[in-house]
Structures are given as structure tokens and as C-alpha cells.
Design goal:
Number of strands: 5
Number of helices: 8
Radius of gyration: 32 Å
Distance between the termini: 45 Å
Shape: elongated
Length: 222
């Protein structure tokens, strides 16, 4: 098939393509409407050495992953639950929290996700941040001030946003999926109909000889 033939197939089966596109897009939007909204709040911690020199900076960079693991512990989660009363265990709370180190910026990002309640997400993110800052400060008291690595709240969780579902993203994904399926169905149908003889040009193309005439399909009038 030449390029023009492909466009001809798409034009011929445009109804199938459009129907599949609209159906999958509608299903994606309907799926989005049935999902429980998850709200996210984010707090960021700044990790910095008390004195900037190569060895201390290198140590801080290596310890970022360890600090992130220390944030997400049952001990810290238990203290958060004492500040933000929730009907869940520390382990259940930890499933709602994501902690990611950002080595290039010396940051630790704390994300809290909660269904139906963005305010709770803000409180949990801020509690994890503040409690860990105090925890680290206490542990650093016995360390030489010139070798300390300080951690502070850089940006508190002062807002929240809808993290899931993203109706626009789901609709786009559904539309693209429908478009692909529609095109696939169009070519499958064209393949299945390839051996059907519907017109004089079809007969000529199949037999590779010119047609001398055709029998009318309609009834004759008297």
C-alpha cells in the first residue's frame, strides 16, 4: 500500500475511528468521576553544613538518603499522630507519606497524600518536617559545631492541591487510546473486506482484466 492508500482507509472508516475515540474518552472521564479525590501537600527541608568546606559538603550529600529514611520511620510517625489525631497506626500513616532527597539542591521533599481532606495533608506534612528538624537538632548537640549538618524547614506546607484524579490527563490518555484502537480496527476491517468484490474496479483489480459490462442490481421498471 502507498501512503495515499493508508489515508483512503482512514477516510473510509472515519466513523469507526471517531466512535472509538469518543467512547474511550467518555469512559476515561466517567472513571475519573468515580475516583476518590486525593489531595497532596508538600513541605521541603534544607540540609546545609554549619561551615562550608569540601569534606562537610560531601558528607551532607552522602547523608541525604539516610536523612530521608530517618524522616519516614514509625517513631516520627507516632509523634505526628500525637499532634494530628488520626484513626490509623504509624505504619498506615507512613503509607500516606513520600520522602524524597534532592541531592543537587540539598533538599528533602515531604509529600503527604490524603483522601477528601487537603487540610489534613498540610498538617501531616508540616508535622513530619518540624518533628524531624527538632529530632535532628537534638542529635546534633554532641557534635562539634564546625562539623554539624543543619536541617531546617525551607518551605512549609502552606497549600494543598488535587493530586488524583487528573480528569484532563485521564481524558487525554483515553482519547489517544481510542484513536489508536480506532485506527487499528479500521485496518483490521479493511483487511477482512479485502477479498470482497463490491464494484467493477474491485473485479478488475482482482482478475487483472478489464470488465466488459455489469449487471444492474436494481429492479427494472415496466
Amino acid at each position: 500500500m502507498e501512503l495515499g492508500d493508508y489515508f483512503q482507509v482512514l477516510r473510509k472508516h472515519i466513523r469507526i475511528i471517531l466512535a472509538t475515540f469518543l467512547l474511550t474518552t467518555a469512559l476515561a472521564v466517567l472513571f475519573s468521576e468515580t475516583q476518590t479525590p486525593i489531595y497532596r501537600a508538600e513541605a521541603s527541608l534544607q540540609v546545609k553544613p554549619a561551615v562550608f568546606n569540601y569534606n562537610v559538603i560531601l558528607t551532607a550529600n552522602q547523608l541525604l538518603n539516610q536523612f530521608a529514611l530517618q524522616v519516614k520511620t514509625t517513631g516520627i510517625a507516632q509523634q505526628v499522630l500525637e499532634q494530628v489525631p488520626l484513626e490509623m497506626t504509624p505504619r498506615q500513616l507512613l503509607k500516606q507519606v513520600t520522602v524524597d532527597p534532592v541531592p543537587e539542591d540539598f533538599l528533602i521533599i515531604i509529600d503527604a497524600d490524603f483522601p477528601n481532606d487537603g487540610e489534613i495533608a498540610k498538617q501531616v506534612a508540616n508535622s513530619f518536617a518540624n518533628i524531624f528538624v527538632d529530632y535532628h537538632a537534638q542529635r546534633s548537640l554532641s557534635i562539634d559545631p564546625l562539623e554539624r549538618i543543619e536541617i531546617s524547614v525551607l518551605v512549609p506546607a502552606d497549600r494543598y492541591w488535587l493530586h488524583w484524579p487528573s480528569t484532563r490527563t485521564l481524558a487525554l490518555a483515553g482519547g489517544l487510546t481510542g484513536l489508536f484502537l480506532g485506527i487499528l480496527l479500521a485496518f483490521i476491517r479493511e483487511y477482512l473486506e479485502a477479498d470482497l468484490l463490491r464494484s467493477v474496479p474491485d473485479v478488475e483489480r482482482q482478475l487483472e482484466v478489464p470488465a466488459l459490462g455489469a449487471i444492474p442490481t436494481g429492479s427494472s421498471r415496466r
